[in-house]
Structure formats: structure tokens, C-alpha cells
Amino acid sequence: MKKWFVMSLIVSLFIVSACGGSNNGGKTENAANATNAPANTNNAAGNESEGAAESDEITPEEGASLLVWESKEERPFVEAISKEFTEKYGIEVKFEEVGAADQVTKLTTDGPAGLGADVVVFPHDNLGRAVTAGLVLPNDFYEEQAKTANSEIAVNAVSYGGTLYGYPRSIETYALFYNKALIKEAPKTFDEIVAFAKTYNDVPNNKFALMWEVGNFYFNYPFISTGGYVYGENGQNKDDIGLNTEGAVSGLKYYGSLKDSILPLNSGDITYDIKKGMFTGGTLAMDINGPWTIADYKSAGIDFGVAPIPSINGQPASSFSGVKAWYVNQFSKYPNAARLFANFASTKAAQLKDFELTGAIPANTEATNDAAVQGNDIVKGFVAQFNQSTPMPSIPEMGNVWSPIAAAFSDVWNSGKVAKAALDNAVQQIKDANNGTTAK
């Protein structure tokens, strides 16, 4: 759903258009040593986001060399940053193509066997699996530096059980695309969209003010965010479910009202491909979507903008977001060298290089505010939405949420079911699954 493997390449293609223009297998017996305090552990607090000063850097192991896993789309960046790292520290870095979404699964077997990469990278919603399986080390030596340099949202996303594990690198969320030929400015509220739909909608001719995947909870979360949440404690407390709070019920009621006012279709009739066809065909004025669709909309010749999702019931619309980060393999033979690389490859300078080469949107706050990012209005729109987003819960119990909550939304949209009853039923199913079955 999150399409990490597509996002970087697509955004990169857009940026180019807009401008004109590896394996030292770990040994299991080293895992215990790796969890001990690393050598030369000076306090990294207060360092600039460019990276720790020489005197505050961790001391890599003698004769260290590293293997890094990353997706094919990120090869240009990984090879470039690895070359810089080798030139500076004399540590060889090899690259092996492994999709980000597949790395935790692969590390589950390859890590203990001593075949895994020393440094891995994956979306934060896989972190719970990695931590509970004992696959990754905490980001201990560079903890304060990472917390200071990166967005608080990103830092929280790559933490688990109160411990920081990741070295944040890039962010993703969805936002509002709008066709400037049909609507000159992005609406600030959903009520404005309702008003626009009254004058614009023409159902027989497939003209609609707004579409989103109304049957997909990933895109429906904004309606829960107006006073509700999935799990408490930054998405990590499975026993605190906030999907049927008063605010969530109010949001779902409003969601249900939009079928009559802006989108009189059943949820099954609104798919990604249908939306894309209407937007590129010039009949859909607005679409809630992610950066993976930029290239298609750009190549269709649509003059579009990207803006934050309009407010709902007077509340900011928070979207689900994802954070991609580096992690150090628990079974790495060279944990200090791996820490050093993970930090080096996630500094402000590194994230800006990643943005330049692949289009990955930085998690580093200074990098986000850099002219290279702020000068791109499309990326700037996604950054603005990310700043009011909610990281998708990373605990394994998130797997128990999708089906019940999707059914609740579907019942309200397609059948007019009472919002509170639909959410109460969904929450009970989630509780039963959390307490009685293994999350999938």
C-alpha cells in the first residue's frame, strides 16, 4: 500500500522533469557483545545535524567491512554515500538489492545464520516485528543526535517501546492533488469541497469534485484522526484502542455524509485506476493520493498542485505516514562500523543527496527546510501534510485492525449503518483478536 519501492523512483522522475532537465556475515556469538555500550561513547548531544565531530565518533572494529541491503531504486544513493564513507573511513561497503518491505522477513532467517546485511533499511511499520524477533540494535551512540536532527514524528516512528532503533532517512504520506484548471486553489476545509461539488459534479459524465479510496482505511484515517486514534502511546499500546471515541464517531458520521454530497458511488466502484483515469482525463478535480502517482499525472500534462488534506469538522486532517530508516543488524560482526555508517548515511547532507538522486523526501528538519526541497511545490505539499500526520502503528497487533475497521467504514458508506454501532463492533473484534489470536 505504501509503495516505498515505487515512491523514490517516481518522485525522482518528477524532479528531473521539473528541473528541465555486499556480505561479511555476522556471527551469532557477537550479538551479546554488540548490545554492550560501544567503544568511545562520548555524549553526542548537541552535535550539529551534519554529523558528530571527529572526537565524538564511534570507533569501528579493526578490519571492518560492511554489507548494506536496499532496493534497486535507491542504488544511486547507496553507491554514492558508500563511496564517500569508504573514502573517509577506509571501510569497504558492499551493496545488495533487497526490497525494503522484504528485509525484516529476510533478516529473520539470514540474521541468526550470519548471512544478513550489517545495515538494513525498511519502513517503520515493520519495526515491531524486527524488535520482538531481536533482529536490530538500538540507536544508542547517536541517539541524541538523531533526535535533535530529525522530525519528532520521524523519531517517534522509528522508536519502539520507548527505545530509538532507527536512523531516520526519509518520509512519506498522502495529500490532496488538485487540477488547477478545474479548481485554482486547494480548499482548506471539506465543507468547501462540498460547496464546490454542488456546482461541479456531473455523475453521468464522470465529473467529480473529489475522490479517494473510500473503502481503504489507510486513506480513511483522517476521519478517525478528528479526535480518535488507533492505538495509544504513539501507537504502541494494544490495550488502548481509540477507534470509537466521540471524536472518531463524529468523523465517521461526517465521512458517511459525503456519499450524498460529493461522491455518490459505492466504495467498490472507486479504485486507484478509476481515480487516475479521471484525473488524467481532466474530469476529476481533486484526488487524495501519494507521491507514487506524481509521474503519471505529470506525464498526462495535468497542471496540478499538492496541498494538505482539508480539515474535517474543524479539526486538522491527520494522515497515516511512513518513515524509512537505517537499522543495525543485531548479528553484525561489526556493529560499531555499522552504527557509524547508519549515522553517516542519515545526516542532513546525506538526506539531501538522497533527495537529489532519488527524490526521497528528507526526515531531517534542516534538510526539509533546505531550498532544494522548499523550492519544489509538489514535495513541499507532501512535507506540509507529513507535519500533521500520524505514523502508522508499528506493533504486530496493527494487523488485527485493517479488516474490522474497513468493514465499519464500508457499512457506514454503503449501507448507512450508524457510525457508533459500526465502530463499537469493529473495536470489539480488534480486542478479541488482540487478546485471543496471534496478529497477522
Automatic annotation (TrEMBL):
GO BP, sorted A to Z: maltodextrin transmembrane transport; maltose transport
Biased composition (Low complexity): 29-50
Main localization of the protein described in the UniProt heading: membrane
GO molecular function, one term: maltose binding
Bias kind Acidic residues: ranges: 51-60
Tagged with keyword S-adenosyl-L-methionine: no
Domain of life: Bacteria
Region of interest called Disordered, as start-end residue ranges on this chain: 29-60
Residues annotated as signal peptide: 1-18
Transmembrane segments: none
Compartments, as annotated in UniProt: Cell membrane
GO CC field: ATP-binding cassette (ABC) transporter complex, substrate-binding subunit-containing
Membrane topology of the entry: Lipid-anchor
The entry's keywords: Cell membrane, Lipoprotein, Membrane, Signal, Sugar transport, Transport
Membership in a protein family: Belongs to the bacterial solute-binding protein 1 family.
Protein name: Maltodextrin-binding protein
Organism: Paenibacillus endophyticus
Organism phylogeny: Bacteria, Bacillati, Bacillota, Bacilli, Bacillales
